[in-house]
């Protein structure tokens, strides 16, 4: 919330979505947000695809989404338990498709123009730092996504 407030005046007037941990968005909300956005930010626990139904995502056409930022792959005992319980009925192949590279490929095939995503598990603090760097670089400084990724790598 601090980061959203910090960059509130920069291109954020049209931002919409779900923030906080009060509730989990429904599948319909995920689909509406994904299909109506030009940029999408996911900042959450576990893998992005553990929140969105895979069979619905692959059927979606989301070419309006020019940039998707996935700050996921954060694990807590509670989030791990939720994913473990929901994954009991998933095959090994299905779970493998939820990986970072596979997620990027599926999103690209669905029409997303650029994807910035974590490659391995991280902490909430590290993702908060990444979000601050991304916001400053993209919104305040007007850097391109390539320049921004380069800044993150440093």
UniProtKB/TrEMBL annotation:
Name the domain of life. Eukaryota
Q: Which InterPro entries match?
A: CFAP46
What's any GO biological process attached to this entry? cilium movement involved in cell motility
Protein name stated in the entry: CFA46 protein
């Amino acid at each position: 919330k601090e980061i959203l407030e910090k960059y509130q005046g920069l291109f954020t007037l049209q931002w919409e979505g779900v923030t906080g941990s009060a509730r989990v968005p429904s599948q319909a909300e995920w689909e509406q947000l994904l299909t109506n956005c030009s940029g999408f930010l996911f900042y959450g626990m576990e893998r992005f695809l553990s929140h969105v139904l895979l069979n619905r995502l692959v059927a979606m056409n989301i070419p309006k989404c020019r940039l998707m930022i996935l700050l996921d792959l954060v694990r807590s005992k509670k989030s791990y338990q939720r994913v473990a319980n929901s994954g009991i009925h998933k095959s090994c192949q299905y779970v493998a498709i939820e990986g970072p590279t596979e997620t990027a490929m599926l999103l690209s095939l669905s029409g997303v123009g650029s994807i910035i995503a974590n490659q391995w598990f991280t902490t909430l603090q590290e993702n908060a730092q990444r979000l601050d760097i991304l916001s400053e670089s993209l919104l305040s400084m007007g850097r391109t996504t390539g320049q921004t990724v380069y800044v993150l790598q440093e």
